[in-house]
Write a structure and sequence with these properties.
The chain is an alpha/beta fold and 296 residues long. The protein is 45% helix and 15% strand.
Amino acid sequence: MLRSLLFAPGDSDKKMTKASGIGADCVILDLEDSVAATRKPTARGMVADFLRGERAAGVRFYVRVNPLDSGLTLHDIAAVVPAAPDGIVVPKANGPEDLRTVSHYIDVLEAEHALPAGAIALLPVATETAAAVFTLGDYRFDTPRLAGMTWGAEDLGAAVGASTNLRPDKEWTSPYQLVRSLCLFGAHAAGVQAIDTVMADFRDTDRLKVVCDEARRDGFTGKIAIHPAQVEVINAAFSPSAEELAHARAVIEAFASNPDAGTLQLDGKMIDRPHLVQAERIVALAAQLDKLGAAR
């Protein structure tokens, strides 16, 4: 389970190292937007060297490659897969077929370099083109290596010619509320993590907390960060509180004591089987986070 995924430019050893020690569950070493075209060959080597070095315990390292239509993807993958990243972020994915293409590239390189087959996960940024929006429900069908789905608003806005994606109250405009929801449902239909998109204003931590709380409320399980200052807020928002965990355990105990009951009362409120499912999810998440904390 990845709560926080922090970007770090792949052409800066200093920033990649710093990102590793911030507390993010995952660091995304970037070869796309944060790296100038003239620096991309250098950045590939720097990312590969970084991955071959001593990695921070308990942190996963993904690499965001360039999109398939750039002509750079295979060069990126060929450079970094031998260094065994935990995952690849696929930007501007037009649908599961793009992931199958990337997975095929990785299959060949894993075999060539004696890496465990299928160990490298894929995370698509699944809403950055207009065509991609119409495929969000298809990732549940035979999509290899899929570990989660996330969405993006900036590239989609550019693709459709939108003048903005935010209302004056800083809420998403309706097209982006739609794709956010479709990504959420697509991820859950595929049985993988739904990861919320970035919040560009990294200085507004109060707003970030609100956005994270809304995302978790709706069913997202993590969020991408563009600045180290966002990580602590994101981790806290996507972790069960002590009160949540205590309530979840009480729900589980209530149903364990009444195995034939469909509905029960707990603390003066009616609970039923969906509450049990949610309680089990919260307890499982807490256990995963305990293991993560022990690994660091």
